[in-house]
Design goal:
Elements lengths: L1 H13 L3 H14 L5 H26 L4 E9 L5 E3 L2 E8 L2 E8 L3 H6 L8 E9 L12 H7 L4 E12 L5 H15 L2 H11 L7 H4 L1 H5 L10 H17 L4 H18 L4 H18 L6 H15 L7 H16 L6 H11 L1 H8 L1 E2 L3 H25 L7 H21 L4 E2 L5 H19 L5 H15 L3 E6 L8 E4 L6 E4 L25 H7 L4 E7 L4 H4 L2 H7 L1 E8 L7 H5 L5 E5 L4 E2 L5 E5 L12 E6 L2 E5 L5 H10 L7 E3 L11 H7 L3 E4 L12 H9 L3 E4 H4 L2 E6 L5 E5 L6
Parallel strand pairs: 4-6, 11-12, 12-13, 13-14, 18-19, 19-20, 20-21
Antiparallel strand pairs: 1-3, 1-5, 2-3, 3-4, 5-6, 7-8, 9-10, 9-22, 10-11, 15-16, 16-17, 17-18, 22-23
Length: 733
């Protein structure tokens, strides 16, 4: 198929990622017998067109000014979200699409943005910023994600004025639908209706859907092929009963399909589903002999033309891969339950590449609950949606809410922990994808697949049992967190968890509470295949060092918790709730660990303050590490008095580079080569201070900063013994 060839060459230019592996594999199967020069020429011309389209698209979204002054912004009304005193929306300025953030100045201003009819045009001034790439190893890449959506930059708005309500488009209509649903139903019911009918997930949806996520059913609440087939299939049946011709039905379904894309937020999974439905109907209407794979390929070509960077989105990758899997599985002569289980297994490579874990019972729960979802939940939510405008019995509302509550409780009770596997490297992922294709091929001819499954199992097990060791200074913002993983996962250490400092605010200013470790530390651990922590150390009691302790201990199995002797007094309430974790009180002279020996150098007694920080020292791969927490200069002087011969290669700079830490005596005596500063980007404290940076430069210490370079980590191989210090962001802007 020339379309597959075209997409392969085109995406190679700007989208070099794992998806090429899948396309290459399919391409080899489809084109191994391709002999027509005309087809190859057509493929080349198609790829050239997509390549040029991608090139100009990338340059267009990148060419934006750094400052915007008194420019007109067209606001996408359905993108407006309020979180405490933060306003977030998407808008266009001079044809460029921006993600806009604005700090509200008063509760009246917040009420203005909460009304039914909000402005869709205004005059705006502010500074633009580039999106961050992944700031932690295997972390979320905001730059790729937002560029895939065509959003150029972040716009930090400083001033809004001259609000106007111009003629409302589909975005404004969708915003009013969201407002109507919120006014008619309870928070829980409204959240489900918005997610299932118009593809809008509000802040509360994450709380209600936690049980679905644990059991692998969250995909049922993402608008995709199932929902589009339900909507367009139902409308098609109605049009057919009206005795309309196929051509007329095609025109009407095309109009309705594209309206659905806009009214449901234009997600990639929705676009894929609508395009697939319409392409299939076109082939049926005009008797075009396209195979299912050809139709899938044509859909992908159209998607790439419209959104050249779509494959940078994990949502698009998942939607396309799952659609391709179902395409092949539907050709196999197997039962529905066999198809469901096989789909769950064959989707494993992409799931672990994207999320590092696998929901073991996801296929089983999908099989059991899919009929309820298809025949009760989806029609019921659609009926309630129309209930915003037409009278319906209140009993339906009551029964649907009870059903959702019952499902949440049942799934919470039946939930089984996800299997943490880790993120595979490129070569392992390549082999896993090839195995998936070989399994499908062998099943088609009813051949045995046990050998292939055995190879896949071996590769999956090898992911977390890597021969590489890692010492990571995790980017947790304004805070500290250091994760250590020994080769072959012999032992794991976590020193501090990071956390957010809270400041007094009025009620209207308070933002939704988010556990930041769910977005930085825990995904890192999952990607490395670590589902437990052998030793967790808390250096002292500040929130930016141990604020995420409770969440980490709730999500991860922690075997041993270490506190400086005396600091436990402030943590009494937390420690009473600890189950299955041994709590140790340590002081100067103690040693922590079995394979790696962490020596505690300070303090003798602690009250949980900065200058009582737990100071540790260890050696790995002939490199020395000194971790000082928030130790201040008086504590450093005491440390040097007790250990006058102390030397180190890596020094974790104390108190985020504050001028109250990192005295010249410490630097002169320990002679570090590298200084790592864990600090938040654009933090309000001015860390690290110029004074501290000058001292580090004076002693010719190479500086690494998490605010500028993201996660800083030292990685070495147990086999070759070679080690290297690495950062996530090489080029500092």
């Amino acid at each position: 198929m020339p379309i597959l060839t075209a997409i392969l060459f085109a995406t190679l230019i700007y989208q070099v990622n794992f998806w090429l592996t899948l396309l290459l594999s399919v391409l080899l199967i489809r084109t191994c017998c391709m002999k027509s020069r005309k087809i190859l020429l057509l493929a080349f011309l198609c790829s050239l067109f997509i390549g040029l389209r991608t090139y100009y698209y990338v340059n267009y979204i990148r060419a934006v000014p750094e400052t915007i002054t008194n420019q007109t912004i067209t606001i996408q009304s359905d993108s407006v979200k309020l979180d405490g005193n933060l306003l977030k929306l998407t808008g266009k300025v001079n044809g460029k699409k921006y993600l806009v953030y604005y700090s509200l100045k008063s509760s009246e201003e917040k009420d203005f943005w909460s009304q039914k009819s909000i402005p869709n045009s205004a005059i705006i001034s502010g500074e633009t910023e580039t999106f961050d790439p992944a700031r932690n190893l295997n972390g979320f890449d905001a730059k790729k994600y937002y560029h895939s959506l065509g959003i150029s930059r972040i716009l930090q708005a400083q001033r809004f004025s001259s609000f106007q309500r111009k003629r409302s488009g589909l975005s404004g209509f969708r915003q009013r639908l969201i407002w109507s649903i919120d006014r008619h139903y309870s928070k829980r019911l409204a959240s489900y209706i918005k997610a299932l009918v118009i593809g809008y997930k509000d802040a509360e949806f994450a709380e209600y859907s936690a049980a679905y996520k644990m059991t692998g059913l969250l995909h049922l609440f993402t608008l995709s092929g199932l929902h589009i087939q339900f909507y367009l299939g139902g409308i098609h049946l109605l049009l057919k009963r009206l005795a309309l011709t196929r051509e007329t039905r095609l025109i009407l379904l095309s109009i309705i399909g594209f309206l659905l894309i806009y009214l449901t937020g234009g997600g990639f999974s929705t676009i894929r589903a609508v395009l697939s439905f319409l392409i299939g109907f076109v082939c049926l209407t005009f008797d075009i002999l396209f195979s299912k794979l050809d139709q899938w390929s044509l859909m992908l070509l159209l998607l790439i033309i419209c959104y050249p960077l779509a494959l940078w989105s994990v949502g698009a990758q998942l939607s396309l891969y799952f659609a391709l899997l179902l395409l092949y599985l539907n050709d196999l002569r197997i039962n529905v339950w066999q198809q469901t289980i096989l789909f769950s297994i064959l989707s494993l490579p992409l799931l672990i590449f994207s999320f590092s874990e696998w929901t073991i019972i996801g296929g089983l729960f999908t099989l059991l609950l899919f009929p309820i979802f298809e025949w009760i939940i989806l029609p019921g939510c659609l009926l309630l949606f129309f209930g915003c405008f037409l009278p319906i019995p209140q009993l339906i509302e009551y029964l649907m809410e009870c059903l959702f509550i019952l499902l949440e409780k049942f799934l919470t009770f039946a939930a089984f922990p996800n299997l943490t596997i880790g993120k595979p490297g490129f070569l392992i992922f390549l082999f896993l994808l090839l195995i998936v294709l070989l399994i499908i091929d062998r099943l088609k001819y009813r051949q045995r697949i046990f050998f292939l499954l055995g190879i896949a199992f071996f590769l999956i097990v090898s992911i977390s049992l890597s021969a590489n060791g890692l010492i990571a200074f995790v980017d947790v913002g304004q805070g500290d967190s250091i994760f250590i993983k020994l080769p072959f996962k012999q032992e794991t250490f976590l020193i501090d968890t990071g956390g957010r400092l809270n400041f007094k605010q009025d009620k209207w200013q308070v933002r939704q509470t988010k556990r930041i470790s769910d977005y930085n530390l825990l995904p890192l651990m999952k990607s490395l295949g670590c589902h437990k922590i052998d030793h967790l150390l808390v250096t002292h009691n500040d929130a930016d060092h141990m604020g995420e302790l409770k969440n980490v201990m709730r999500k991860v199995n922690v075997r041993n918790l270490y506190l400086a002797d005396g600091s436990q007094m402030e943590l009494r309430n937390l420690l009473r709730k600890v189950r299955g974790t041994k709590v140790h009180l340590v002081k100067r002279g103690d040693t922590i660990g079995r394979y790696l020996k962490l020596r505690v150098l300070s303090p003798e007694k602690s009250e949980g303050e900065n200058d009582d920080s737990l100071v540790t020292y260890f050696q790995l791969n002939q490199q020395r590490f000194l971790l000082t927490g928030d130790l201040e200069t008086t504590g450093e002087e005491e440390l040097m008095k007790n250990y006058p011969q102390l030397r180190t290669d890596f020094l974790k700079i104390g108190h985020h580079g504050s001028n109250t830490s990192t005295g010249e005596e410490l630097l002169e005596k320990t002679k570090p080569k590298y200084g790592i500063i864990s600090v938040g980007k654009k933090n309000r404290y001015g860390h690290p201070t110029d004074e501290t940076l000058e001292k580090l430069n004076k002693y010719q210490i190479k500086i690494f900063r998490t605010d500028q370079q993201g996660m800083v980590y030292y990685q070495w191989s147990e086999i070759t013994k070679r080690g290297k210090i690495k950062v996530l962001i090489d080029f500092i802007e």
